[in-house]
Amino acid sequence: MTDPKKVLIPDCDVARERYCVHPHTLRRWDQNPALGFPPVIMLNGRRYREVAALEAWDRKNSREAATRRAGLTPPSPEVA
């Protein structure tokens, strides 16, 4: 049974409003496990993402981007 407190956003809204990318970009991100992009949740043939997972992914990526800007090398995905 799914958690009733999960907030889901349709993939088209995630792509357009959150990341300003084409919806197919999310599918490419899904195919690259090294990115760690939150998994798709299929409901009635439609694609959704969990808001909490997207926010966690954003926080992780903003830390890595800040580390790169500071001239430090973030840990590689192979180490984790």
Which terms would index this structure?
alpha+beta; 80 residues; 44% helix; single chain
Structure, described:
With 80 residues, the protein is α+β, with helices and mostly antiparallel strands. The protein has one domain. Helix content is 44%, strand content 14%. It contains 3 helices and 3 strands. The chain has helices at 11-18, 23-30, 51-69, and strands spanning 8-10, 41-43, 46-50. Strand 2 (41-43) and strand 3 (46-50) form a beta hairpin. The chain is elongated. The relative contact order is 0.15.
End-to-end separation in angstroms reads 30 Å
Any low-confidence stretches, pLDDT <50, length ≥5?
Answer: none
Shape: elongated
**Fraction of residues in helices?**
40-55%
Number of domains: 1
What characterizes the major β-sheet?
Answer: 3 strands, antiparallel
The gyration radius over C-alpha positions equals: 14 Å
Q: What do the pLDDT scores average to?
A: 84
List the helices and strands and how they pair.
Blueprint: E1 8-10, H1 11-18, H2 23-30, E2 41-43, E3 46-50, H3 51-69
Antiparallel strand pairs: 1-3, 2-3
Concise summary:
This protein is 44% helix and 14% strand.
